[in-house]
Amino acid sequence: MSRDEVFEEHRPLLFSIAYRMLGSVMDAEDVVQEAFVRWRGAGEVRSPRAYLSSVVTRLCIDQLRSARARREEYAGPWLPEPLAAEPAADPAVLDETLSMAFLVLLESLSPVERAVFLLREVFDYGYAEIAEIVGKSEANCRQIARRARQSVAARRPRFDVSPGEGERLVRRFVEASMSGDMEGLLQVISEDITLWTDGGGRVRAARNPIHGADRVARFLLGVIPEAPEGLEIRYARVNGQPGIVSYYADGTAQGAAAFDISGGRIRAVRYVINPEKLRGIPPLLRRSSDDPEEEGPS
Known about the structure:
Structural class: alpha+beta
Number of domains: 2
Number of helices: 10
CATH class of the largest domain: Mainly Alpha
CATH topology of the largest domain: Butyryl-CoA Dehydrogenase, subunit A, domain 3
CATH superfamily of the largest domain: PhyR, sigma-like (SL) domain
Helix content: 40-55%
Domain SnoaL-like: 170-266
Order of helices and strands: HHHEHHHHHHEEHEEEE
Family: Belongs to the sigma-70 factor family. ECF subfamily.
GO molecular function, one term: sigma factor activity
GO biological process, one term: DNA-templated transcription initiation
Radius of gyration: 21 Å
Shape: globular
Number of strands: 7
Distance between the termini: 48 Å
Domain RNA polymerase sigma-70 region: 7-68
């Protein structure tokens, strides 16, 4: 196996680590590319997995330290860059560590705490490996992991949506919102729902989270008439969750929303409309007249 082939074999793991560390598709891809450059210039490596994981994790830690001040000055709620995929007919159980709720929760950890927690709890690295990667003793890493678990445990997201139920609720949510059906909207959202909109100061968005069913419903029904002309909505899996991606008339992404669902109701909506965070979403491919039409509102 060539050196490049060895790297490609590990690329999915490296991206998974980097994306969870940074919450950014573009930054994660940049980190993986930098790791590739270093890999090509490295001498003999006994364990490619250990070497590459170490390079990616350390690059992410450095980037998080430099980004902390920018996050504090961010305009409005900060949400991760969305990962969007086609909805599956029978979606698999959600990987909660990819969910927006989980990635936002990780923001409460320091860069090193985040690295230790993810490597141990998500990727099942041994403490000896983690100690080598982050440059701390094994005993220290055990303490860091324990503190991080305690910090995360109380707020860790839990999802009990069954396959297909989430998509059905999201469709009812969209249909009620687009038709101005206040009562229909209130039937699918929980009383304690929260809506976050991340515009990053680039586009108009709510500067603070909106709490409560009535306030969320009124906000949505108030802003939808102001939506750009020709806006199209497609159902998707966003960070593994039931979601939507909205597109401008020219096919570029306008926003992506992930829905937290529990107890048969939508409990949270996280909607990213900052255009800088949507560059990783491919443009909408128009179907030819010979193709069957995709179900969904336009």
